[in-house]
Design goal:
Strand order of the largest sheet: 3-4-5-6-7-8
Order of helices and strands: HHHHHEEHHHEHHHEHEHEHEHHEHHH
Number of strands: 8
Number of helices: 19
Distance between the termini: 44 Å
Length: 455
């Protein structure tokens, strides 16, 4: 197949999978992180991240595509932009002397500030937490404005480079990509609260010392979390992406009280809009398998660890499952051992459909895998991915029937930093009715380009 035909084939395959239909074969996802690809191309991770250009990124991606990639989707992204970090002096993302950016344990506000946070999380984050974690924003208004402008321009610049490089690679090699504008991202309120705001150590203390404050804070976060996951396009190929973090560290009773209720409602509220969920289940979610079953049908679970058999038995007829292949096997195992592990996983997870092949995590350091093992596993997965009953239903649930309504429990997201056109035009009225539609269009276009809150 040429690239166009291959892309059409892959798009149908993912669309069938996401629609609860057995595809011609199960999709095979690539698992290469940009940090790994930089090193695999023989480049210095530390300096390359400061030297990005569209041509350089394309060279790095094409090297990985032609030598390693065998999967059906392929794109590069970065979690943190070191060039932008120059201008914020960010304390929550710290680069090592080898170029890896890590998130140290940090707390953005203290326990006695919960009431201020609860009053309006978005405004508190923007006014208080972000300047604390980004000292460049803590100066005069002019200093903050210049720092943010530099950060924003650096972010837009690098984003555009990655977008152009990804578009080139996708078209040239026929990779699947979701419909533009159909993918959003949010976080469970507990993870938002625990991550940069209270920190791992403090949140564990908070649920003992001030549990009601924690519960109130998570409810207060819901309008913002709902707003963040909304997309301008709702399409079966898109989703609301959630990267979980703290759930597996909690005792069952704490998970049930603090983590699950708002997470559960957030997923169902996405379902009310027709959005599907794509959830990275970090850690081992085996003991929460019954919880995951209760989310709207067709949720896509990318598992890091856990009991593959239990996941398949409990979730496999209602939801879509992937992940679990241990990246460490590709480093320590022989070629035969690596293939045997893939066979074991596929034999459990693939029957009946609702499965995509993926790794438990994606590569980061050049030492994470042996390239020959990576290629061998992906080629084995592709060679054994065919179904003999394509087109049959694999999820016998009507999506809408599995969605519960919770959106009416929460007010519309409000913040002085994210104003609708109707609110903003009261501050700057159009001089003539003829120009209002144009002003509205421009206001909404450029407002949408700004991140949800300053980082």
């Amino acid at each position: 197949m040429d690239a166009k035909e291959l892309r059409e084939y892959r798009t149908k395959m993912y669309t069938d999978l996401y629609s609860g239909t057995v595809p011609d074969r199960f999709p095979v996802n690539d698992g290469l992180g940009i940090e790994y690809m930089i090193q695999f191309a023989g480049k210095n991770l530390l300096t390359t991240q400061y030297e990005y250009s569209t041509e350089l990124i394309t060279e790095i991606l094409e090297n990985a595509v032609t030598k390693l990639s065998r999967g059906d989707n392929f794109s590069a992204s970065w979690a943190r932009n070191p060039v932008a970090l120059i201008f914020t002096r960010n304390l929550g993302n710290v680069m090592s002397n080898t170029g890896f950016i890590q998130h140290p344990e940090i707390s953005g506000f203290s326990a006695d500030e919960y009431d201020d946070f609860i009053a309006n999380p978005h405004e508190f984050l923007t006014d208080v937490v972000v300047p604390r974690l980004n000292p460049a924003y803590a100066g005069t208004p002019a200093e903050m404005a210049f720092a943010y402008a530099r950060n924003y321009l650096a972010t837009v610049d690098v984003n555009a480079m990655f977008a152009k490089a990804n578009a080139y690679i996708t078209e040239k090699y026929g990779y699947f990509t979701p419909v533009p504008g159909s993918t959003g991202m949010t976080a469970p309120p507990f993870d938002t609260l625990a991550d940069f705001n209270r920190g791992f150590s403090n949140i564990v203390l908070d649920i003992r010392r001030c549990p009601q404050k924690v519960l109130d804070a998570m409810e207060a976060l819901m309008p913002m979390a709902i707003y963040q996951q909304r997309t301008r396009v709702v399409d079966i190929t898109g989703c609301s992406r959630i990267m979980t973090h703290m759930g597996v560290f909690l005792r069952q009773k704490d998970f049930d009280r603090f983590y699950w209720p708002t997470f559960y409602k957030l997923c169902h509220i996405a379902g009310e809009r027709g959005q599907r969920m794509y959830i990275f289940c970090e850690g081992d979610w085996t003991r929460f398998t019954d919880n995951l079953y209760e989310l709207p049908a067709g949720a896509r679970y990318w598992f890091e660890y856990g009991d593959a058999r239990k996941y398949k038995d409990v979730l496999g007829k209602k939801h879509i499952l992937g992940g679990l292949y241990p990246l460490t096997t590709l480093k320590t195992g022989t070629r035969e051992q690596c293939i045997d592990k893939a066979k074991e996983l596929i034999d459990i997870m693939a029957p009946g459909g609702n499965f995509f092949f993926d790794f438990d995590k994606h590569t980061l350091d050049i030492s994470d895998i042996e390239p020959e093992n990576y290629v061998a596993v992906q080629e084995y997965a592709l060679a054994n991915a065919k179904y003999d009953n394509p087109g049959e239903k694999s999820i016998n649930y009507v999506f809408e029937d599995t969605v519960s309504k919770f959106s009416d429990q929460y007010p519309e997201f409000k913040s002085k930093y994210v104003m609708s056109w109707e609110e903003y035009k009261k501050l700057y009225p159009p001089v003539n009715d003829l120009v209002e539609p144009i002003m509205k269009e421009k206001y909404e276009k450029y407002t949408a380009m700004i991140p949800g809150f300053i980082r």
